[in-house]
Amino acid sequence: MPQVPSVNGAALRGPGPIDIALTVNGNAVSARVPPRRTLLDTLRESLGLTGSKRVCDEGTCGACTVIVDDRPVYSCMTLAVACEGKRVETIEGLAKDGELHPVQRAFVDADAFQCGFCTPGQIMSIVALLRATPAPSEADVRRAVAGNLCRCGAYPNIVAAGVSAGRRRK
Amino acid sequence: MPRVVKSREEFEGEVYESLVLVEGRDLPLLDGGERTEIGHERRRVDGTARVTGRARYTQDVYLPAMLFVRVLRSPYPRARVRRIDTKKAEALAGVRGVLHRFNAPKAAFRGEDTIFREEVRFVGDEVAAVAADDEDTAAEALRLIEVDYELLPHVVDLEEAIGDVAPRLETDGNVAEASTHKRGDVRKAMKEADAVVEATYRTSTQIHNSLETHGAVASWDGEVLTVFESTQHVFGVRQGLKMALKLPFSKIRVVCDYMGGGFGSKGGVGKYSIIASLFAMELGRPARCILTRDEENLAAGNRSATLQQIRIAGKGREITAIEHTSWANVGQGKWVANPTGPTNTLYDVANVSSKSYKVVTNAGALSAFRAPGYVEGTFALECAVDELAERLGIDPIALRRKHAGSPKDPLSGKRYSDKHLLECYRIGAEEIGWRRRRNGGMRGSAPHRHRGLGMATQIWGGGGGPPAYATVHLNPDGTVVLTAGTQDIGTGTRTVLAQICADELGVDLADVHVRIGDTENPYGPISAGSVTLASVGPAVRIAARDAREQLLGAAAGVLETPAGELRIDGGVVVSKGARTPLSEILGKVENNTVIGKGARHPNDPELSQRTFGAHFAEVEVDLRTGEITVEHIVAVHDIGRIVNPLTARSQVEGGVLQALGFALTEERFVDRATGRVMNGNLENYKVPTVKDVPTKITVKFVDRPDRRANNLGVKGLGEPPIIPTAAAIANAVANATGARIRHAPLTRARVLDALAVAEARS
Q1: I need a labelling partner for B675 at 20 to 30 A (CA). Which of B51, B270, B500, B520 fits?
Q2: Which residue of A has its CA nearest to B257?
Q3: A86 and A106 housed in the same domain
Q4: Which of B650, B682, B697 sits opposite A61 (nearest CB)?
Q5: Are residues A81 and A116 in the same domain?
Q6: What percent of chain B has pLDDT over 70?
Q7: A54 lies in which domain range?
Q8: Which B residues in the span 691-720 are in contact with A, Cβ-Cβ below 8 Å?
Q9: What's the pLDDT score for residue B288?
Q10: How many CB atoms lie under 10 A from the CB of residue B673?
């Protein structure tokens, strides 16, 4: 058996593709990924979850936002290998039994999107906000989506949707 | 029998006469009574798909065995490609093909016969393309391609390109006259004027930065080429592919189900679609070529930077003459948008002289960007009108009113189909509180902050026209499939078309399924020029009426009641005292396929169809930092009947916010020495964020059907709200501070410079 190199007891793997196990939307999944592969590309190309969008691929737009262990992250700036054993939530996992999540419902009601390309990221940022701040103010919502660009300019309705989603969850 | 008729349509400031094929008769204008769907706020019918991640965009199309294509782009603004060595790239495991100018088949593209030029002419110009099993391999292979470039002299800056020492990029020079207009006697009017304002305005290059980059996924089954493309015109892409690949229409299918923004830049086929198609056909595997954000900022179009000179003369309380000359940096573009369009058409001014020049440079080609030309031109014109009002000592709205009420298009002499611009002024002035406006501005929230009000007007087309077709299939269970060749670019096309169909047919909105974005559907026009609703909507209404009449015919037979005594309401056939669900009627008829057809009928060639509007801005300016805070924007538009007030309002807010970027922050920087775009990403190219949104945006519509426009009385709304915002803000800043900033965007540095100039003068 070749010895697995380790640093401070943690196994070093790579440089070739390695197998990782994580939880995505409540399901245990595994994927074989090169160490440099982002969580975004892993979701989209290995797991077929194309709801998270690749817009800038360098952490400047927020369209790829997902929730990892209850925190919103840019999945294009997160390596898949860094998510080993973690809980990842994406836009595809929000609706339960055909029922939209309150934030999704609020987005539809408030017309908080036009082309819809930034929408999954906006929604995930607000879902994460509501877990920490169940009844956010407009300023709270603005801060939560300050890293999510919308080129169609749906911002006023996005803020309204965030506030109303908080209200209806109370 | 189908027949050929003449029509007259406006598209992005230009008027076209055309021949179109129509059948049957147009419907009379939709009556003014309460409707079941039209005129009501409705959530988007595709809302659930968009909020669940289920909506499939081009980027989300992954086909089995698909190849990933990456493009090698020129690092130089102008060079001759002398030699390309691809041996190392081809030796890389996973690389399946490389295309470049020495091995690619001829392919017609925008007047040239190749997609890989011998002389590359901007940083980002296509040099070679690699298809590989995965994206990383394709990217790696690009680094292994060796290109021998012979560098040539270049010019990227507009004003440098106009000058005498710049290299000549075309045999006729870099500057070409594009359009000109003259009426009256400008020289005489200038001589006799009480005041003449002469000023130079500039607008910087704005990049679309649609969140979904340009791209295509092509698949060839040996018989038919299917191309998924993020586009505003599936039929336009099909046309481009036909020209490039020499395939007949019957062998090309173009699909765009959902698309992540285009704003004018996705009007036709791209080199990426041709490259993906060539690889797919050559290698027998689907191929995907989707631009990176970097590439999007280099090679996917932009709004031209402009240099504009205006002389505007006034006498008494009127504008007597305008002279407007514009130069626009089109990069490697083959056309130019017309910034003098608003000057020629907006105001009924007797003496006008305008010229628009196209200037080529070694930068990426322009493409249409939401109201191309009109955004740039309105900034200059509407600032100049305010400058003249100030010189004449009259209120800016009072001066405009003198020239804004004319029922005739001053350019063509034709009557407008409808016009309520003065009403827009009235509503806007009321909403912003124009009475508070004082010369010299108002006190701000702190001693170093000054507050001001400004406004500006917009004129645009949006009347639409033929050809546009739709079919309405009524299923035996009473559900409806509406099919049209248009596409929803985020404006809510699916929703408003479903509303029109449900309203005319008498079924529930939830029972209408809309199929669009596919060249297998009846032809639909480009989703640009604000033409979609006014083109496709009337065809949908006719198709729904046709289906309804056929259905009532069937119902008359089943219910043994004359069709004239039947009506359809909420999916139920109502006869005297009886209500029968559609499904019951259709279930009883053996041949139960009801197919309604509709075509857009021509416009009245004697009328000019335009949209009008006015935006008002209230701003505060920090005199220490030059920061502009936009407190309130009031947007008032006259665009005919509003089909869905909810989505219409969203569209206006979005236009205002995109305009805010143009007005305050968005500006492409190109290094003159190297020709490189210095801020080609979303970090350094500043599109507005949620924190840049004004405290308040008020949206108002005149909301009166244009009775002479089409059978719905509707006109377009995509572009109008981006047109007047920047000038309204600049005018408010001038009101607040006494400083006139004549260069958009009004960055802090420009505000501080203008404040220093104003202070030195006083």
Answers
A1: B270
A2: A115
A3: no
A4: B682
A5: no
A6: 100
A7: 6-93
A8: 691, 693, 697
A9: 98
A10: 8
Instruction: Let me know whether B576 and B502 are in one domain.
Output: yes
Residue B744's identity, in one-letter code, is A
pLDDT surpassing 70 at residue B286: yes
The chain A residue lying nearest B680, using CA atoms, is A56
Chain A residues inside the 8 Å CB shell of B62: 45, 48, 50
Domain boundary among A93, A110, A134: A93
Q: Do B120 and B176 belong together in one domain?
A: no
Same domain for A82 and A14: yes
Q: Are residues B427 and B399 in the same domain?
A: no
Contact B211 A151 (CB under 8 A): yes
- B712 part of a folded domain: yes
Full-model pTM: 0.97
Is residue B492 domain-shared with residue B396, that is, in the same domain?
Answer: no
Tell me the pLDDT tens digit for each residue of B348-363: 999 999 999 999 999 9
- Looking at the fold, whether B442 and B477 belong to one and the same domain comes out as no
The band of B2, judged by pLDDT with boundaries at 50, 70 and 90, is confident
- Asked if A107 lies within 8 A of B47 by C-beta distance, the reply is yes
Q: Is A109 helix (H, G, I), strand (E, B) or coil?
A: helix
Specify the residue for token string 């016009």: B419
Count of structural domains within chain B: 4
CA distances from B421 to A52, B320, B428, B636, B710 (A): 43, 20, 11, 9, 20
- Examine the domain organization and report whether B333 and B386 are in the same domain: yes
Pick the residue of A44, A50, A115, A118 with the most B CBs within 10 A to test the interface with B by mutation.
A115
Q: B588 vs B432, which has greater pLDDT?
A: B432
- Nearest chain B Cα to A117, which residue? B260
Tell me if chain A has a CB within 8 Å of the CB of B139. Answer: no
Q: Chain A: give the shortest CA distance to residue B669, in Å.
A: 18
Contacts of B693 in chain A (CB under 8 A): 155-156, 159
What chain A residue is nearest to B64 in terms of C-alpha separation? A45
ipTM, two decimals: 0.97
The band of B20, judged by pLDDT with boundaries at 50, 70 and 90, is confident
Using an 8 Å CB-CB cutoff, list chain B residues near A113.
Answer: 47, 50-51, 490
* Residue B510 in contact with partner chain A when CB distance is under 8 A: no
Q: Are residues B623 and B720 in the same domain?
A: yes
Q: Which of B449-463, B487-501, B566-580 has the lowest mean pLDDT?
A: B566-580
> Is B62 close to A149, i.e. CB distance below 8 A?
no
Asked if B672 reaches chain A (Cβ–Cβ under 8 Å), the answer is no
B640 CB contacts (<8 Å, ≥6 apart)? Answer: B418, B534, B611, B704, B705, B706, B709, B712, B713, B714, B715
**Looking at the structure, do residues A123 and A64 belong to the same domain, yes or no?**
no
b or e along A129-157 (b: 16 or more beta carbons within 10 Å of the residue's beta carbon)?
A: bbeeeeebeeebbbbbbebbbbbbbbbbb
Position A40 in a domain? yes
Domain extent, residue B646, equals 418-462+604-762
Please tell me whether residues A118 and A44 are part of one structural domain.
Answer: no
What does the alpha-carbon distance between residue B264 and residue B232 come to, in Å, rounded to a whole number? 8
A22-53 pLDDT, tens digit each: 999 999 999 999 999 999 999 999 999 999 99
Per-residue pLDDT at A4: 60
Report pLDDT digits (tens) over B266-277: 999 999 999 999
Cβ B601 vs Cβ B479: under 8 Å: no
31-90 in chain A: CB under 8 A from chain B: 34, 44-45, 48-58, 60-61, 63, 90
Q: How far is CA B696 from the centre of its chain?
A: 25
- Asked if residue B329 belongs to a domain, the reply is yes
Separation CA B313–CA A63 (nearest Å): 50
pLDDT by residue (tens digit) across B470-484?
A: 999 998 888 999 999
User: Does some domain include residue B45?
Assistant: no
pLDDT at position A1: 47
Whole-angstrom distance between the N-terminal and C-terminal Cα of chain A? 57
Report the number of distinct structural domains present in chain A: 2
Cβ-based contacts of A109 with chain B (< 8 Å): 43
Residues B180-188 have a mean pLDDT of 98
